[in-house]
Design a protein that fits this description.
The protein is of the alpha+beta class. It has a single domain (23-145), classed as Alpha-Beta Plaits (2-Layer Sandwich). It is built from 4 helices and 5 strands, in the order E-H-H-H-E-E-H-E-E.
């Protein structure tokens, strides 16, 4: 197996994608923040003292997606054309499901940007709500779907 992130001398490098064709690329990732039911109700009702938890988490997730190449050493800086963060309240499991869809037209995919987006949004929910519930858990961070590039359309079977 050939490792693409090492040069001939064995040192780390960012992969050369200059010969690849530009294609429309999208990726969707998901994360779940589990919490006490009272915490979920406080977030829904605007009862968290730090402010609008989901509003701030949405902006933070977008910023996280945009900053991926600054956080992950081998990621290419990409011109993102769209970042969308959605929240689903799961009352039964006392959790918030976060989804981030990222889109670009370029030579490399946006999977890491989508994963960064949901991760930063989840951490923001935790940060803003930790005074109420220190034992929240961030789980199930994963790529759900990607389109574009050589591998085409790939979707997780949940």
């Amino acid at each position: 197996m050939e490792f693409t992130h090492f040069n001939a001398a064995g040192y780390a490098r960012m992969v050369d994608v200059s010969e690849k064709n530009d294609t429309v690329r999208t990726a969707t990732a998901q994360a779940i923040v589990h919490m006490q039911s009272g915490t979920l109700q406080a977030i829904k009702s605007g009862g968290i003292k730090k402010g609008d938890v989901l509003g701030v988490a949405q902006v933070a997730g977008i910023m996280g997606a945009k900053q991926t190449s600054s956080l992950i050493p081998m990621c290419h800086p990409l011109m993102l054309t769209s970042v969308d963060i959605e929240f689903e309240m799961d009352e039964l499991n006392s959790s918030i499901i976060i989804r981030c869809q990222v889109k670009t037209t370029g030579k490399t995919g946006v999977e890491m940007e989508a994963i960064s987006g949901v991760s930063v949004a989840a951490m923001t929910i935790y940060d803003m709500s930790k005074a109420v519930d220190r034992w929240m858990e961030i789980t199930d961070i994963k790529l759900m779907e990607k389109m574009g590039g050589k591998s085409g359309h790939v979707k997780r079977d949940q």
